[in-house]
Amino acid sequence: MSLSSFNDYLLLEKKYSKHTVNAYGKDLEDFTKFNKETFNQNKIDEANYSQIRSWIISLVDSGLQNRTVNRKVSSLNTYYKFLLKTETIKINPLSKHRALKVSKKVQIPFSQEEVAIVLDEFNFDNTFEGVRDKLIIELFYSTGIRRIELVQLQLKDIDEANKTLKVLGKRNKERYLPLLRPVLKTTKTYLNRRNQLEAIADKETLFLTKKGHKIYETLVYRIINNYFSKASTKVKKSPHILRHSFATHLLNQGADLNAVKELLGHSSLAATQVYTHNSIAELKKVYAKSHPRNK
Q1: Catalytic residue, candidates 81, 97, 240, 277
Q2: Is 227 a catalytic residue?
Q3: What is the pLDDT of residues 272-283, one digit of tens each?
Q4: Is the same domain home to 58 and 116?
Q5: What is the strand order of the sheet 158-159 is part of?
Q6: Catalytic residue from among 14, 97, 170, 234
Q7: Among 72, 134, 146, 147, which one carries the catalytic annotation?
Q8: What confidence tens digit (pLDDT) does each residue in 160-212 have?
Q9: Max Cα–Cα distance, the chain, nearest Å
Q10: Cα torsion at 27, 43, 14, 152 (round to 10°)?
Q11: Does residue 171 carry a catalytic annotation?
């Protein structure tokens, strides 16, 4: 079974993004190389669990974190499940594999005060880049979109009449997010600045560099890190933390968990529940302050 068939399966049936499919391909390529060098075997279809376990041990010994190793093994497992489905193999060598233990990462969101400092107290330049940066921060905090989702936004995704934003999420699943009035105001200013650029290479893309090219993920990260480094002492200052702040602050204000799930574009509640620990902490404060027996 060719890897191209597997790629088509991921793209067309599983609806994975090209970025995810490329990552799967790289993981399979790494295992193929290891299998050939270590066991002189070219076909990973014929690999057994003992060989896979040797690969896992080598990955751990190389210093990779358990979370990364689990992701690589998951790619291989998905491939074997595909081979089972197409009746290329009869047994999945990873059927009884147990993932390596990983420590739970506690993502500390920005406080509402820190976000307010950035959006309300900072003087953003009234230039293309200044207005663009402000809109990026506002969109992250008001919609909770992912960094890759923001990068891929098109001009046509903004519906000013209905005050919504169409977002293409994981597995090409579309969702519509409400846009707040201040965000719409900044959007209008940004579009005016965008139209004044000397040259635009990526005409359909919403967010551009000052040279008119599609914005890229590392630049978006630098923008968030730069502004929040001036307002927060937290170790991690990234677009994901801003997304985390969006979810946490909504839950702290009493938002329904299912509603937050839909806004974030999660496929299950389990993914959304990781954001609730801060909400619970806030509830404990209110409880301790308000309960009549806690005197």
Answers
A1: 240
A2: no
A3: 777 666 555 555
A4: no
A5: 158-159, 164-168, 174-178
A6: 170
A7: 146
A8: 999 999 999 988 889 999 999 999 999 999 999 999 999 999 999 999 999 99
A9: 72
A10: 40
A11: no
